[in-house]
């Protein structure tokens, strides 16, 4: 494989490295309140574009089928809102005997209680080619479910989810009905478009991370907490993969992709306001926030790096399943 062909194939990984490097050099450009205004361009415009893109690319029957996939929804929500926080609590009982700052450990516990994000899990599922419709439902439903039961204003959550998820999705579906033949004939690069939006999100996320004064720990504590967070993410991604691919599971490879991303990702957008309300007046609020501030870019970075590997597994698994379902030719005597 030639160098140019290799670069073309791995453009997304190279893009991740590039945007992180640019964010490190000048984080002020993509930080909240900066020239790019990510609080508008990312939170509203980019997220709306993601779900308009999804509405345009998904068949209506796929969305309907995903809505009725109750087993998948139960798996994701129970893992996210029950198993994840419980497992983190048990793990932190072991870490409590170590010299790690207790407020950082409390921050890790709050990470476990957060819902999935609305955008990153959907984009990564789409980039792999997984069950995008199921990812959309579980990401939005998880945020809505936990947000409506917390101290964060219900009206604010509902209106933002409605305007950035539901409305663009419906508009995309309506537009699709009129240009369906053109879409099937031209096959626009929906996956590449979502990947480009994801690079924008990665860039602004790391701008916020590098510019954030709260992440001002001693190097030992910072290295330890980053290691713990990546270990948690890798372990839980592996667990959800094992659970959803066991022999008696009815999940398809595409379902597994949605499950892996939706079950292990956590929302920064909903998480930070929740922390500010729950821990209002706490002297150590900045330390409590650090694990979530690290978890968010870490999940996007790790998920993006794993896209080619997971996609390769899914495609090969789908081919293997297709071969096993083909009727065998009768043996001639």
UniProtKB/TrEMBL annotation:
A GO molecular function held by the record: symporter activity
CC terms in the record's Gene Ontology section: endoplasmic reticulum membrane; Golgi membrane; plasma membrane
Compartments where found: Cell membrane; Endoplasmic reticulum membrane; Golgi apparatus membrane
Protein name: Sodium/bile acid cotransporter
Protein's membrane topology: Multi-pass membrane protein
Known role: Does not show transport activity towards bile acids or steroid sulfates.
Organism of provenance: Junco hyemalis
Highest taxon listed in the record's lineage: Eukaryota
GO terms, biological process: sodium ion transport
Family: Belongs to the bile acid:sodium symporter (BASS) (TC 2.A.28) family.
Residue stretches spanning the membrane: 12-29, 41-58, 70-92, 157-178, 190-211, 223-244, 256-278, 284-307
Record keywords: Cell membrane, Endoplasmic reticulum, Golgi apparatus, Ion transport, Membrane, Sodium, Sodium transport, Symport, Transmembrane, Transmembrane helix, Transport
């Amino acid at each position: 494989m030639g160098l140019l062909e290799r670069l073309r194939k791995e453009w997304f990984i190279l893009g991740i490295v590039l945007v992180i490097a640019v964010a490190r050099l000048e984080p002020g450009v993509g930080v909240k309140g900066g020239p790019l205004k990510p609080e508008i361009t990312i939170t509203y415009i980019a997220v709306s574009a993601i779900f308009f893109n999804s509405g345009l690319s998904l068949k209506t029957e796929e969305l309907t089928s995903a809505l009725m996939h109750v087993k998948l929804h139960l798996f994701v929500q129970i893992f996210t809102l029950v198993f994840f926080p419980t497992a983190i609590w048990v793990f932190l009982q072991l870490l409590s005997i170590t010299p790690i700052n207790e407020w950082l450990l409390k921050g890790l516990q709050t990470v476990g209680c957060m819902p999935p994000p609305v955008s990153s899990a959907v984009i990564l599922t789409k980039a792999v080619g997984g069950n995008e419709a199921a990812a959309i439902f579980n990401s939005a439903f998880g945020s809505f479910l936990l947000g409506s039961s917390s101290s964060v204003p219900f009206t604010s959550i509902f209106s933002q989810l409605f305007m950035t998820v539901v409305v663009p999705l419906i508009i995309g579906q309506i537009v699709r009905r009129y240009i369906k033949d053109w879409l099937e004939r031209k096959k626009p690069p929906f996956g590449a478009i979502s990947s480009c939006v994801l690079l924008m999100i990665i860039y602004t996320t790391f701008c916020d991370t590098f510019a954030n004064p709260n992440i001002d720990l001693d190097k030992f504590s910072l290295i330890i907490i980053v290691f713990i967070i990546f270990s948690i993410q890798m372990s839980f991604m592996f667990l959800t993969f094992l659970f959803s691919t066991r022999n008696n599971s009815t999940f398809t490879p595409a379902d597994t992709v949605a499950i892996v991303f939706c079950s292990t990702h956590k929302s920064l957008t909903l998480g930070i306001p929740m922390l500010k309300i729950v821990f209002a007046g706490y002297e150590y609020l900045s330390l409590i926030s650090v694990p979530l501030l690290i978890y968010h870019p870490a999940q996007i970075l790790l998920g993006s790096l794993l896209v080619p590997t997971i996609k390769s597994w899914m495609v090969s698994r789908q081919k293997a399943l297709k071969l096993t379902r083909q009727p065998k030719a009768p043996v001639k005597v």
